[in-house]
Design a protein that fits this description.
The complex is a heterodimer.
Chain A (H helix, E strand, L loop, with lengths): L27 H14 L8 H9 L3 H6 L2 H15 L5 H13 L3
Helix pairs in contact in A: 1-4, 2-4
Chain B lengths: L21 H15 L5 H13 L2 H13 L1 H9 L1 H7 L8 E6 L4 E6 L8 H4 L4 H4 L1 H6 L4 H7 L9 E6 L4 E6 L11 H7 L2 H5 L8 H7 L2
Parallel strand pairs in B: 1-4, 2-3
The chains are: A mainly alpha, B mainly alpha.
């Protein structure tokens, strides 16, 4: 909650800047984030729900919420939820991130 | 549409050869872990991305064109949109879908103030501006001013209704059929219905390129 008594995501009705009419086509990695979510949400897995994804995004905190791009928020929330649910562990994730970074992609 | 603006800062197209940001690395790591654990497999991810690319606003336009040409379908669509869409082999699950109909007196607009809920089965992925803080905050505060930024200037006599979507309930706009389209085929009509018409930030216009092939 901020001084307005709202969560960071709760912006309906606030004043804002003119709308930037951009038509950004999602990048491959962003589509994959989307795909991962759809697979985890849908049948037969139902490992996480869309509401949980949104809760995870809302809990990023004001700084991260505003700094991260749309699908960056998604993958951050998906990761948190998978850790919470024990689908992956912090150790596994740490090792895998180091491995991916080590590929020098 | 494509020349309206530049990609925002996070939007540069990225392929596997580009340097990975932290979150791109995180995507690779999470995806590979899920695949290694047998939670998902790589083919499913590929198929899901292909399915995503196959969902375009043409689906929503097909639904609208059918509603314009078939009054019984229109009635079914307004009463139970998921069932009516299934008639056209379009599955809108799992979220509920409500169709909001524009009339002489009412113009509808959709938004998701809390995040980015969008009728994806009918329109595909939402455009960047739909997810932007400006659209989300202002659409419910000053919808007429927002519509003007999209080039839509509605008379004061037309009420503007803004529908705030949720994870479980999505909306789509059924625009008014434009004048002068009596001879149009269903396909010709569908070609008039752009994504922005289905969000409610535009209305269908008869353009020369569509009108010409429609003449007998």
């Amino acid at each position: 909650m901020d001084s307005r008594g709202r969560g960071t995501h709760d912006i309906g009705g606030l004043a804002g800047a003119p709308i930037e009419l951009s038509e950004h086509e999602a990048a491959f990695w962003e589509k994959r984030v989307d795909a991962i979510l759809m697979l985890l949400v849908g049948e037969p897995r139902r490992l996480i729900s869309v509401d949980e994804l949104r809760r995870g995004i809302e809990q990023l905190g004001a700084g991260a919420y505003e700094r991260l791009s749309y699908y960056e928020r998604w993958i951050a929330s998906i990761t948190t939820l998978l850790l919470e649910k024990g689908v992956i562990t912090v150790d596994e994730l740490g090792r895998k991130i180091a491995e991916v970074e080590g590929r020098g992609a | 549409m494509a020349d309206r603006g530049h990609d925002h800062v996070h939007a540069s197209p990225v392929d596997e050869d580009s340097p990975h940001s932290y979150h791109q690395t995180l995507e690779v790591a999470v995806r590979e872990l899920l695949i290694e654990k047998g939670v998902i497999d790589a083919d499913e991810v590929r198929a899901a991305v292909e399915e995503m690319d196959a969902r375009t606003p043409a689906r929503g336009a097909r639904v609208v064109a059918r509603a314009w040409t078939d009054p019984d379908f229109r009635a079914r669509l307004l009463a139970d949109a998921p069932a009516a869409c299934r008639e056209l082999d379009i599955d809108v699950s799992p979220a509920q879908l409500t169709v909001t109909e524009n009339t002489e007196d009412v113009h509808n607009v959709i938004v998701c103030t809390l995040c980015s809920c969008y009728p994806r089965p009918l329109l595909g992925l939402p455009p960047s501006w739909y997810k932007s803080a400006s659209y989300r905050s202002r659409a419910v505060r000053e919808p007429r001013a927002v519509l003007q930024e999209f080039g839509l200037d509605l008379p004061e006599t037309v009420a503007v209704r803004v529908h705030d979507s949720t994870a479980d309930l999505r909306y789509i706009v059924l625009p008014q059929r434009p004048e002068g389209t009596d001879t149009f085929s269903e396909d010709d009509l569908a070609a008039l219905v752009t994504r922005d018409c289905l969000i409610g930030v535009a209305v269908p216009r008869v353009t020369r390129t569509v009108a010409e092939p429609a003449s007998p």
